[in-house]
Specification:
Helices cover 56% and strands 0% of the residues. The chain has helices at 31-47, 62-76, 78-86, 101-119, 123-126, 134-146, 149-164, 174-190. The termini are far apart.
């Protein structure tokens, strides 16, 4: 099976070219160039660009993604961010007959926000969620990934207990314990648990 090759992907491979066009330096022969390009695309997906919102890459990243997505909306689609926070529902199912300029602008901002949310996630995540507006979709996504208030409360309680009981396990090296501590600290931060 032939692999699709982007003709522009090789442009990063020639960074060290001295101007001699006979060089046979390509991405296939230069794995570091492929890695650099892959890393750049990964960062682009995680943080977004002017034209594309940040992507949710893994469920575990929801909290950080949500903050990045909200900041991206504020910067590049402010009316859509207002729609996300305040909601827009004119109470009319026939949006074709909107006449007020403000209603039309609010409706467009809502639809753009919904489209951006769809663009920033896999289809299988949003396809099972029924929503009325962008604000409703945002809240249902939060509940789906973070959980209800009771689930969040229980998770925080579990993390605190795990932190209180943290110690070196039998036959565990100090570096492994430090690694476990780092993961636990990250989870505590993700859930907003602060120890002083």
């Amino acid at each position: 099976m032939d692999e699709f090759m982007n003709p522009f992907s090789d442009m990063f491979a020639f960074a060290g070219n001295t101007g001699n066009d006979t060089s046979n330096n390509t991405n296939e022969n230069n794995p570091s160039a492929k890695k650099t390009l892959s890393d750049a695309l990964s960062v682009e997906s995680a943080y977004g660009t002017y034209n594309k919102p940040p992507k949710l890459m893994a469920i575990e990243e929801y909290n950080r993604w949500a903050k990045r997505f909200e900041e991206w909306l504020k910067a590049f689609a402010y009316p859509s961010w207002k729609s996300l926070k305040n909601g827009f529902n004119n109470g009319r199912p026939d949006c074709e007959n909107l006449t007020e300029t403000e209603d039309i602008e609010n409706f467009v901002a809502k639809q753009k926000c919904i489209a951006l949310l769809h663009q920033s996630m896999r289809d299988d995540i949003i396809s099972l969620i029924e929503y009325k507006n962008a604000q409703d979709l945002w809240e249902k996504l939060r509940v789906k990934y973070v959980g209800s208030a009771e689930i969040v409360k229980n998770k925080k309680k579990l993390l605190r207990k795990e932190f209180d009981l943290l110690g070196c396990l039998k036959n565990e090296s100090v570096s492994k314990m430090i690694e476990r501590f780092g993961h636990l600290k990250l989870e505590l931060a993700r859930h907003g648990v602060v120890y002083s």
